[in-house]
Write a structure and sequence with these properties.
Elements lengths: L3 E6 L4 H10 L5 E8 L7 H4 L11 E3 L12 E4 L6 H4 L8 E4 L9 H8 L11 E3 L2 H9 L3 E3 L3 H15 L3 E11 L14 H4 L4 E3 L6 H12 L6 E7 L6 E9 L5 H11 L6 E3 L6 H4 L5 E8 L2 E8 L3 H15 L16
Parallel strand pairs: 1-2, 1-4, 2-3, 4-5, 5-7, 6-7, 8-10, 12-13
Antiparallel strand pairs: 8-11, 9-10, 11-14, 13-14
Helix pairs in contact: 1-11, 5-11, 6-8
The structure holds NADP nicotinamide-adenine-dinucleotide phosphate.
Amino acid sequence: MSRKKVAIYGGSGYGGSELLRILLFHPEVELVFVTANEHAGKPIREVHKNLNGFTDLLFLPAPDDISTIDGVDLVFFALPHGQALNLIPQLPGGVKAIDLSGDFRIDEPDIFRKYYKLDHAGQIQAKFTYGLTETNRDAIKSAEYVANPGCFATATLLALAPLVKNGLISGKVVVDAKTGSSGSGAKPAANTHHPQRMNSFYAYKPFTHQHVPEIEQHLRQVGSFDTDLIFMTHSLPVSRGIFASCYLETSADLTKEDIGKIYSGFYEGSYFVRIVEGSPDINWVKTTNFCDIAFHTSGKQVVVFSAIDNLVKGAAGQAVQNMNLMFGFDETTGLRLPGTTP
Ligand SMILES: NC(=O)c1ccc[n+]([C@@H]2O[C@H](COP(=O)([O-])OP(=O)(O)OC[C@H]3O[C@@H](n4cnc5c(N)ncnc54)[C@H](OP(=O)(O)O)[C@@H]3O)[C@@H](O)[C@H]2O)c1
């Protein structure tokens, strides 16, 4: 069978870099073109020096009109929020799309406008499937367009979904989440670039983070979720990784073994979710598509920890996992990679 042809819009950023690192070694796909904005015209290997020796492709300029693109089965969009909103509606029929931005994650127009300060996608939103692979597999398999989840949303949802699905949460949920600096993308800004962050630790976007409505919306799709969510984001002085600590109370006393059965049942067949003892560590998931989860109980009190690589399971890796399902490949194709140690 011939390989599926894929393209990337926005290949010169951090999400695009990880898409390239994975797709260049994917046995079932051929990368046909990759676009950039300021880096258009340069060889990929000059921009992403880790890929030197692996590809001779150049970054193409991104056209405003993509209605005539040809010879492509699927397009990844790894562009800043707001760009794919105008591009994906132009795609010719039969071309699938996976968007890594937040443009198509929120169904409710008013909520989208409030958090993203952009016009909502409108009718085309109905064509999008939310791409948290472990909770939405069947829908993703037949999806035309996938809205790939946010990185904080992925870590939080994977930590909470088994309890929500089983209707076990009572009272409010507090999520204390931290990200490395690569979460802000490749372009340095005064308040987000690494020299400012490497010796510091701070909280940001209290009650206003755009992943809050995404998490609430999807928890309501997973099960009955009508409790308050307090979600707080922090900057970690590392380059990659997300760590989420989720605090909650359950409706009944549960032992660690009870919770263990719930999580192992929920994630049976989910290769990329690993239940670990003690605490996950961003060190053991970095550069991989794994989400490591640990939990602890004391009567009705439960704490669940989860760790992912924001650029892999939180972005490009999950996007490829979704592509695999959309094309009928094994979900793990091209993604069974261990991390590095230390
Ligand atoms: N970073 C993460 O951890 C993460 C996780 C999950 C989801 N996401 C989402 O994924 C998307 C990409 O994030 P990122 O971190 O990869 O961002 P990034 O490093 O800033 O890369 C952005 C990409 O978009 C291109 N671009 C910028 N402005 C453009 C324009 N006006 N027209 C066309 N192309 C343009 C850039 O090209 P040039 O560099 O050549 O200008 C670059 O290829 C964002 O929506 C982000 O929210 C990011």
